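Budget justification aside, the reviewers requested a transparent look at the raw inputs and outputs of the sequence design task funded under Objective 1. We therefore reproduce one unedited record. The lines immediately below are the structure tokens for a 141-residue chain.
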């Protein structure tokens, strides 16, 4: 049986691997928690926010519907990678911020493409466009 603890470990291990493989030159310079969110949001797949009451802390929360076995692994990785990119671009973290807005000018996509994620980005966006609504329908009731 897969427990919720297994899912937590799985997500933490995935985040650690993605940081190692893509941002090894950057380093995690503040406390970073990556966890499953509680809200089954139709629109928000993940988000990053500063930790409350901790001066240098960040929390990334991933939509729990992405636990579904019907969601390909690369889509979960794509969502995680997007949030980690925000982290390293200084949004919701104390990394140096070079841009004013987290999404303007496709800065996330550009950064991800630099790490070789352009194909996965296209593939994931396509998958989400075609299938996410079905996941939402299955998971919401
Ligand atoms: Zn974003």
């Amino acid at each position: 049986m897969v427990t919720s603890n297994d899912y937590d470990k799985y997500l933490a291990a995935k985040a650690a691997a993605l940081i190692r493989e893509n941002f090894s030159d950057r380093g995690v310079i503040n406390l970073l928690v990556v966890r499953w969110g509680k809200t089954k949001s139709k629109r928000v797949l993940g988000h990053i926010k500063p930790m409350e009451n901790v001066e240098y802390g960040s929390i990334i929360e991933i939509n729990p519907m992405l636990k579904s076995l019907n969601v390909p692994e690369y889509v979960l990785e794509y969502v995680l990678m997007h949030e980690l990119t925000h982290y390293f671009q200084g949004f919701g973290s104390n990394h140096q911020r070079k841009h004013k807005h987290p999404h303007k000018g496709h800065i996330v996509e550009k950064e991800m493409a630099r790490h070789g994620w352009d194909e996965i980005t296209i593939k994931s966006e396509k998958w989400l466009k075609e299938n996410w609504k079905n996941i939402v329908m299955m998971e919401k009731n």
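Strands lie at 31-36, 46-50, 57-62. Residues 118-140 form the longest helix (23 residues). Computational costs for records of this kind are itemized in the attached budget.
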